[in-house]
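[Discussion] Sanity-checking designs against the backbone

I'm trying to build intuition for which residues belong where. Below is a structure token string of 166 positions. I'd appreciate it if someone posts a full sequence so I can compare it with mine line by line.
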């Protein structure tokens, strides 16, 4: 695969490391059980996605590390954003996730269509779409339905045929 593909995976891996630390930090600061459980599900999705990317990088001869500064950045972001009122937080989160979805979707072109590499890139996009679906549903006060798209991806392989999260 191209150097650009490898570099993209390294960047996405670090993004998942940061996201995992962020969602774990949000979970630790959550006041109620429902919200805490939702943050834990989001952290789990980040962890699983990170591990899929790790496996792909190892296949390319790269042993990715989890830089402490990236973990700390995620923790600090959780500390800052956990102080916001819930809807204000979601109003910050949603546009960031929309940008990530667009960026990740565009990056799928880095791998040939119908290749395992493209399937992984599509899975990365789907995981971000699931996070966006969470934010949108939380804004609509849809309770447990907010994590439906996340639950649908948990435990799935990037190489299994999947439908886009709803």
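Best answer:
Here's mine. Compare freely.
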């Amino acid at each position: 695969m191209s150097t650009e593909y490898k570099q993209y995976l390294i960047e996405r891996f670090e993004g998942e490391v940061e996201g995992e630390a962020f969602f774990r930090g949000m979970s630790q600061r959550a006041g109620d059980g429902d919200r805490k459980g939702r943050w834990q599900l989001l952290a789990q999705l980040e962890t699983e996605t990170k591990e899929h990317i790790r496996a792909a990088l190892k296949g390319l001869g790269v042993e990715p590390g989890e830089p402490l500064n990236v973990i700390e950045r995620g923790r600090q972001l959780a500390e800052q954003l956990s102080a916001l009122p819930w809807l204000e937080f979601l109003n910050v989160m949603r546009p960031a996730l929309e940008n990530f979805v667009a960026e990740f979707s565009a990056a799928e072109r880095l791998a040939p269509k119908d290749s395992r590499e493209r399937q992984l890139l599509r899975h990365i996009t789907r995981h971000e779409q699931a996070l966006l679906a969470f934010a949108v549903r939380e804004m609509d006060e849809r309770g447990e339905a907010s994590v439906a798209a996340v639950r649908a991806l948990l435990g799935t392989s990037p190489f299994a045929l999947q439908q886009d999260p709803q």
